[in-house]
Amino acid sequence: MKKVSLDRALLLFELFRTKKITQNDLNQADSKAARLDDKMDDFKLLVVMCKDTLAGRYKMNKWNMSVIVGTILYVVSPLDAIPDVVPLLGWLDDVTIVGYAISKLSDEMKRYTLLNKGKTT
Fold first, then answer.
1. Is residue 121, in this structure, part of any structural domain at all?
2. How far apart are CA 102 and CA 61, in angstroms?
C-alpha cells in the first residue's frame, strides 16, 4: 500500500479507536470478515474478544480494547483510505489495518485463547 494511503488509513484508525461500537457494527464485522483473506480468523477472534469484553466475560486493558474497536470500525466503515468499492484495492487497507492490530495485540490474543480453550461463547 502506498505511503499516503497507509498514513490516511492510520489516521482514520486513530479516529475510529475513540468511537463507541454497536451491536450492528459487530454484526457487520462478522459478515465482512470473509474478505480479509488470511487475516479472517484473527479478525473474527478480535470480534469475539470485543463481544466478550463488552459482555463482561473477559477483561482487557482500555488500550487493547480501543485497538480492537478501532480495527472493527475501520473495517465496517465506508470511510477508508481506499474505498471498498474499488475492486481488490478497497480491501487492501482493511487487511493492512487488521494486520497492524494483530501485531499489536498478539499477546492479548494468545492470553484470550488460552483462557478460553475448551469454552464456547
1. no
2. 16
**Hey, is 85 helix, strand or coil?**
coil
58 close to 113: Cβ distance less than 8 angstroms:
no
pLDDT along the chain (121 residues), means of 10: 61 69 90 87 95 94 91 82 64 85 96 84 49
Number of domains in the chain: 1
The predicted pLDDT at position 102 comes to 95
Please state, in angstroms and rounded to a whole number, the distance separating the CA atoms of residues 44 and 87.
Answer: 22
* Residue 28, C-beta contacts closer than 8 angstroms, at least 6 positions apart: 76
| Domain region containing 89 | 3-115
Altogether, the residues listed in the chain come to a count of: 121
Q: Is residue 8 part of a domain?
A: yes
Q: Classify residue 74: in a domain, yes or no.
A: yes
The cell for 28 is 457487520
Q: Does residue 120 lie within any of the structural domains?
A: no
What global pTM score does this model have? Answer: 0.79
Grid cell listed for 108: 492479548
